[in-house]
């Protein structure tokens, strides 16, 4: 399988602090990858560098056959990368339906050969909210949601962009057992439809059941990359998790 | 209401208003009305960047005065009809808005606002040192006393500003529920989330600064003909910025009605105070009203009315 995402020697500093150092990994089209690591190991920073929210000082990112290093975040989204934010960032003044409308208007409708009519837009907004279990709340505003619902809104907004690669940054924290299963089922369905998924998660049950491969970050470095069963037996990984 | 219907209704309301105003015998009302209408344009223009997009521009006076000074410069060169001056003033201030956008829009929050204020100071210094437009001494404009058909020149200026108000409100309203309006709102709510959703935030902010600046320049272009004497300290007066920000704040910033209501309300009070007490009170009035509204109606008059309607509905 051809690599959809290829990260080479990626490095990121915050002032004198090295958040990411020489990260190399690739993700094949259609793959389900779990990205794990203790708190503060640089997972969200890596997502931000991949998606263009932050600029990495060194290294490069290739996506879908082209280097995306110079591209702004919105251009990468239009190419087919979408992500949820770990700390939800809803559009606070808009209804939930309008939150979903933004990526439809600015990503789906900005791609060649697509133009959703106003009726189709409304329909897509409703479908996506339905998919994450927020159907009854289309006309409410984010401030009326619980933290858990906000995470679902984050996911719905990322999915609205019809991505090739979906990165879910701790979308399941705080969810109940059955809600986690719902989201996992949703991600699996998306994956079966051909969407590549990177799942960042602390809940090991979820990561282990979903991922075909695990990438482990510790203190800004990749310390393991491989089959889940092998990675979790890796002494370095065990040490990082027990040491936490 | 669909866009063409809205334009039709707005034009009819404007025409009816103008027709009725012709029944008023006293020229003073046209002078006062001109100022109120000018603030409808300024407040609506400010709100496109400040209310819709969330970028607070303190440099209103610069865009307004550049429109006015474009007219002064052209007056010296060759006399042109007011509508042409309006277009030119709008173009000049629009280009300056675009330039300001490029220079400052990587700044956020208070830093952006301070940069716009600094830009206004720089512009004022440049104009004050430009002798061709009168420098610090100011410039006199000789205007004809009469125009064909309408008669009085002030009535003509009043009509021009009325048409500009209708245009500004129409533009603001058509942005609101459009793709552009949704993009602006996403920038106001969260710029990182907007980018992640595919919104080209930088380009949209440039559209907002250009559009907002152009409308302010258009509002300023007829000013020299209205005052007949313009100097930098009056053209760049701080009260333009204060009022243009206060009006949307008082009226409401999330839709086109807010700046309109705020400008009518505050503008009228200021005109009344100017005749009955003194124009020196105007800024004090603004200050007191702002404090009052922050406490009683933080979302402006429009927000207050919406809340009352919702409450009445719930009671039933
Ligand atoms: N914008 C920032 N400025 C400075 N330091 C940051 C910033 N973002 C993250 N960091 C630091 O980088 C490290 C990695 O953070 P993060 O990527 O959020 O970790 P994770 O998502 O794995 O928990 C942490 O030490 C964090 O404090
Ligand atoms: Mg994180």
> Structural class, from secondary structure content of chain A?
alpha/beta
Number of helices of chain A: 9
Distance between the termini of chain A: 36 Å
The coarse overall form of chain A would be globular
What do we call the CATH homologous superfamily of the domain at 3-80 and 163-242 in chain A?
A: P-loop containing nucleotide triphosphate hydrolases
Overview of the structural elements:
The complex is a heterodimer of chains A (244) and B (316). Chain A is an alpha/beta fold. Chain A has a domain at 3-80 and 163-242: P-loop containing nucleotide triphosphate hydrolases (Rossmann fold). Helix content of chain A is 39%, strand content 25%. In chain A, the strands form two sheets. In chain A, strands 6-7-8-3-9-10 form a six-stranded mixed beta sheet, with helices on both faces. In chain A, strands 2-1-4-5 form a four-stranded antiparallel beta sheet, with helices on one face. Chain A is globular and about 55 Å long. By secondary structure, chain B is an all-alpha fold. Chain B starts with a helix and ends with a helix. In chain B, the strands form two sheets. In chain B, strands 1-4 form a two-stranded antiparallel ribbon. Chain B contains 15 helices and four strands. In chain B, 76% of the residues lie in helices and 3% in strands. In chain B, β2 and β3 form a beta hairpin. The interface between A and B is medium-sized, with 31 and 20 residues. Bound molecules: adenosine-5'-diphosphate and magnesium ion. Adenosine-5'-diphosphate (ADP) binds at residues 14, 19, 37, 39-45 of chain A. Residues 14, 19, 37, 39-45 of chain A line the site of adenosine-5'-diphosphate (ADP).
